[in-house]
């Protein structure tokens, strides 16, 4: 039965209620799965806490890294050159990340000139980074 005041496109209230019930039922399955996942993680961590042996000794509480016992204070000075090496790594990593997808898009018909110009702009930015590293003397062998 169609209500003439509401129009033919508006569904009946019972149909709307059934659609809402189906909608929320599908999300209740997702919610139940999320709760079960959280419960599984909580039980696993709880069991680990209950079953593990706890015997704190001074040796276990000592800071340990790479097999070397700590000597002196915890503050260490980091050389700036490591920052520059990381900077160069990012330049080359970003370059390789963008060159492979660009090569596949460049081969598609209709995208050649646009992608070629965009890639030269991108390579220009990378060239500025390499020029900066060259000016700092990072690229010279010592």
Tell me what you see in this structure.
This protein is an all-alpha fold and 142 residues long. 67% of the residues lie in helices and 0% in strands. It contains four helices and no strands. The chain has helices at residues 13-51, 58-61, 80-107, 112-135. α3 runs antiparallel to α4. 0% of the residues are buried.
Give the CA-based shape: flat
Give me the count of strands. 0
Unreliable spans are none
Could you spell the SSE succession in H and E letters?
HHHH
Question: Could you say which structural class the secondary elements and strand pairing correspond to?
Answer: mainly alpha
- Oligomeric category: single chain
Head-to-tail CA distance between termini: 88 Å
Mean pLDDT score: 78
Helix content: 55-70%
Major sheet summary line: none
Number of helices: 4
Radius of gyration: 31 Å
Strand composition percent: under 5%
Summarize the structure.
It is built from 4 helices and no strands. The protein has helices at residues 13-51, 58-61, 80-107, 112-135.
Quickly list its features.
142 residues; mainly alpha
Q: Helix and strand layout, with pairings?
A:
Layout: H1 13-51, H2 58-61, H3 80-107, H4 112-135
Helix pairs in contact: 3-4
């Amino acid at each position: 039965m169609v209500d003439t005041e509401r129009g033919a496109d508006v569904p009946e209230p019972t149909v709307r209620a059934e659609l809402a019930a189906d909608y929320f039922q599908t999300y209740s399955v997702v919610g139940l799965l999320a709760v079960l996942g959280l419960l599984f993680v909580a039980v696993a961590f709880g069991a680990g806490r209950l079953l593990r042996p706890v015997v704190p000794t001074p040796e276990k509480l000592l800071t340990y890294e790479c097999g070397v016992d700590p000597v002196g204070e915890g503050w260490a000075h980091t050389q700036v050159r490591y920052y520059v090496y990381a900077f160069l790594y990012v330049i080359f990593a970003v370059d390789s990340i963008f060159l492979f997808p660009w090569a596949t898009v460049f081969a598609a018909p209709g995208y050649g000139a646009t992608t070629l110009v965009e890639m030269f702009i991108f390579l220009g930015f990378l060239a500025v980074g390499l020029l900066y590293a060259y000016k700092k003397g990072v690229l010279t062998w010592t």
